[in-house]
Amino acid sequence: TFRDASGLALSSRNLRLTEPQKKAATGLYRSLDFLKENLAPGDLLPLLTRAKTLITEAGFSAIDYLSVTHKLTLEEIRVWDGNTPLIALGAAFMGEVRLIDNLILYP
Q1: How far is it, in rounded angstroms, from Cα 4 to Cα 66?
Q2: pTM > 0.85
Q3: In this model, does residue 26 exceed pLDDT 80?
Q4: What phi and psi, each to the nearest 5 degrees, are found at residue 75?
């Protein structure tokens, strides 16, 4: 994923965002980065719940999905063993614009 200096994933959809929305839209990436920084073996639900709160607090109108999956199969992982390769996937609406992002969590 290519990003601008703010962390916002580069996409033609960004053209539909106002300047304040572009600034707020970095909240999706920040929530994925939060998952990466706080990742630990065990139940991922509390971590995902907090990450979703970060998205909402950033000003997104709705969350389509936010999940942690196996990096290769994209099978959702609810309890992490500390070894399985992971990626975080998210989609949320900033006003009428649906933004998507992803971030490799491990390794």
Answers
A1: 22
A2: yes
A3: yes
A4: -70, 135
